[in-house]
Amino acid sequence: MQAWYKGAIWLWLLAPFSALFALISGGRRALFAWGLKAQHKTPVPVIVVGNLTVGGNGKTPVVVWLVEWLREQGYHPGVISRGYGGKSAHYPLLLTPETQAEQAGDEPVLIYRRTGCPVVVGPKRAEAAALLASVGADIIVSDDGLQHYALARDIELVVVDGKRRFGNGHLLPMGPLREGLWRLNTVDAVINNGGPAQAGEFLMTLTPGALTSIDAPPTEPAPCAPQTVHALAGIGHPPRFFATLEQLGFVLEQQVALADHKAVASEQLNHLQSRPLLITEKDAVKWPGGHANTWYLPVDAQLPSAFEQMLLTRLKERENGD
Questions:
Q1: How far out from the chain centre does Cα 103 lie?
Q2: What would the pLDDT profile of 147-183 be if each residue is shown by its tens digit?
Q3: Mean pLDDT across the stretch 245-256?
Q4: Are residues 276 and 289 in the same domain?
């Protein structure tokens, strides 16, 4: 909701509802803290990658980075997710090569196809984590779920959009916050996506990969800057993707921004046929077809060595029972 980031005065009309949200969410959090609601503790470590705001902040690249990094440390990681946007006949759902975004959601399918690690989706993360542990995962990465206190966790990471930050700083629905900014003081690390990073934050940059054709093999040569193209993105903050393409030297004739997780309808492509079409990897996993020259741009997270050292320290403390 753009009003959250533009200081709209009318949002004060929603202040009573934000107060009610704070009361309910705070009460629920207290029930877990006091032991009146039970937390599920898995036999393996759990790393939660979440955020404080509604909308995409760049969690998926962090999850992919973690899976690859954990493998380098000798772990066999798996990922759990709510599977937002997916509709499966049964949960928890263990993804297979045949699983589509319509069943599991776009982000879990992207993570599974990119990393090949076991991925389980389901609204009850404790059940998803149990299934993941049963198939051999010795460490679990939770894609989102910072506020899902029913699952105990060992490490909490919060991803912050470096440009948009926290909008007006208010709780839902008056602002974009799921929890107050005080929560940042309780997590293990704050990852700043794109900067500028503030004191205590780890700066993450996203490095674009090579354009990849939706068709295999491609029917057209890959677009090259400074070629004029069309661009489409159905992510949390489409302007970030468009800016990346412009930084790579492409000239964007048309920019189509869709809501996060929103699948494009084939008829929306009718006016984009005149140029190559560049989309995100997240859009690619649910691509309907309908454009003969479509390419997606994968991105890879880059995180500092200090962040890696922090993770190693936290994992060692967990192994030692600290």
A1: 18
A2: 999 999 999 999 999 999 999 999 999 999 999 999 9
A3: 96
A4: yes
Element (H, E) at 107: helix 106-115
Q: Which helix (H) or strand (E) holds 28?
A: helix 15-33
**pLDDT confidence of residue 101:** 92
Annotated binding-site residue numbers: 53-60
Task: Report the binding-site residues for ATP.
Answer: 53-60
Place of tokens 């500028």: 196
- Residue 221 is given by DSSP the state P
CA angle 280, 235, 292 (to 5 degrees): 35
- Are 259 and 125 found together in one domain? no
pTM of the complete model: 0.93
Q: Is it the case that residue 321 has pLDDT exceeding 80?
A: no
10 lies in some domain:
no
In this structure, are 231 and 279 located in the same domain?
yes
CA distances from 69 to 49, 163, 183, 236, 316 (A): 14, 26, 26, 25, 15
- Is 239 within the bounds of a domain? yes
Tell me the one-letter amino acid at 245. Answer: L
Residue 261 DSSP one-character state: T
Q: Ramachandran region of residue 25, left (φ > 0), alpha (ψ -120 to 50) or beta?
A: alpha
Between the alpha carbon of residue 44 and those of residues 104, 124, 148, 186, the distances in Å are: 24, 17, 18, 21
Tell me how far CA of residue 34 lies from CA of 41, 112, 322, in angstroms: 16, 36, 21
* Domain residue limits at 125: 38-205+302-319
Asked if residue 26 belongs to a domain, the reply is no
Q: What is the residue whose two structure tokens read 């050292």?
A: 309
- Torsion angle (degrees, nearest 10) of CA 116, 88, 172, 31: -90
* pLDDT tens figures, 253-276: 999 999 887 888 888 899 999 999
Residue 267 pLDDT: 83
